[in-house]
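Recall the central idea of this unit: under ordinary conditions, the amino acid sequence of a chain determines the structure it adopts. In this exercise we apply that idea directly, starting from the sequence alone.
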Amino acid sequence: MGAGKSHWGKIWAEKSGMTFFDLDEIIVAKEQMTIDEIFDKKGEDYFRQIESASLQSTLDYDNCIVACGGGTPCFFDNMKWMNENGLTVFIKAKPHTLLQNMTHEMKKRPLFNKINQAEILTFIEQKLKERNEFYTVSKITLSIEELNDSTITDLLTKV
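Accordingly, the structure predicted from this sequence is:
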């Protein structure tokens, strides 16, 4: 969360002539509810099942960039599936950077609705620790500081 997956994904897709998909947007359109409403009304387990199915539905498209949620790689062997079916990129960022990037979007983040502001940095650090084993098996790891408009071009010429 807050690493810029959707932001950079849109820019890179446009720059490279690819289609861009935001996994959360696919889920919202399919469920006709916000992510927060899905979590509140149907629970995280239901959300993760829909998320995995929605992720796998992107296989129908060639030459696309998919921005998945921060938790997507951690459930239902999604990370293994992504590595088998595409080029995975982990955008690595320090907890303070993520917190700074997310401060203007806190209400859109369902996982933050149940904790107070003072606990958010600790929460981010814990999530990164829990998810690191999934993130680090990405085919490519990029530091958030090295991202720019031409990152995708650079990546595609190296593949």
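DSSP finds seven helices and four strands in the chain.
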